[in-house]
Amino acid sequence: MPFVIAAVVLLGALCMVNLLLTFGILRRLREQTAELSRLSGALPPGMPAPEELVGTPVPAFAATAIDGTPVTRDSLMGRPGLVGFFSAGCAPCHEQAPVFATWLAEQGDDATAAVAVITDSGPEAVELATSLSGKATVVVEPDAFTVSQAFGVRGFPTFLRVDAGGVIAGADATVRGVVAQAAATS
């Protein structure tokens, strides 16, 4: 009988230690979740949120499209434009690419200046570039991210609507959202 009592006491003590460790782990998870939430809303120093770009002029940038065409701020001047930023490993980017292409096709060839900026490289980047070429000027930035940094893009996908005067008229994570936003401000 003394062995049974000792076993029950030992088992009870182990359960209490397990319970205390579980509460400690839960407290630590809550702290990490709060920290991740805080960090996810934080911007790298000097980078505005895309929504903050609305109403600002298109920043100066220079890149080369996959067909060798130079792409600069001046290539977005004179007519409304749409700039889409895609990441090759981003599932929402692959979902928005056909919407981007369809919207551009609906606008007509000369109605809208369109630039698709694809970060990363590899087969997924090639797939995105292929699906968007012919509909937009496609720039692939596997390393430098010059266009993305110039615009202050911090998440993918990001779409920026540019008016004919070279001012950013809308910013959103969806094509429909940025077009609606730009139409509402017009």
Keywords summarizing the entry:
single chain, alpha/beta, five-stranded mixed β-sheet, 19% strand, elongated
Strand percentage lies at 15-25%
Task: Give the C-alpha Rg.
Answer: 25 Å
What is the helix fraction of residues, given as a range?
Answer: 40-55%
Which strand order does the major sheet show?
Answer: 5-4-3-6-7
The DSSP helix count reads: 6
Characterize the overall form: elongated
List the helices and strands and how they pair.
Blueprint: H1 2-40, H2 50-53, E1 62-64, E2 70-72, E3 81-87, H3 91-107, E4 113-119, H4 123-132, E5 137-141, H5 146-151, E6 158-162, E7 168-172, H6 175-185
Parallel strand pairs: 3-4, 4-5
Antiparallel strand pairs: 1-2, 3-6, 6-7
Q: In short, what is this structure?
A:
The chain is α/β, with parallel strands linked by helices. The protein has helices at residues 2-40, 50-53, 91-107, 123-132, 146-151, 175-185; strands at residues 62-64, 70-72, 81-87, 113-119, 137-141, 158-162, 168-172. It is built from six helices and seven strands; from the N terminus they run H-H-E-E-E-H-E-H-E-H-E-E-H.
Task: Explain what the structure shows.
The chain has 186 residues and is of the alpha/beta class. It contains 6 helices and 7 strands, in the order ααβββαβαβαββα. The strands form 2 sheets. It has a 5-stranded mixed sheet. The protein has a two-stranded antiparallel ribbon with strand order 1-2. Helix 3 links the parallel strand 3 and strand 4. The longest helix has 39 residues. It is elongated, with a radius of gyration of 25 Å. The protein starts with a helix and ends with a helix. About 4% of the residues have low confidence.
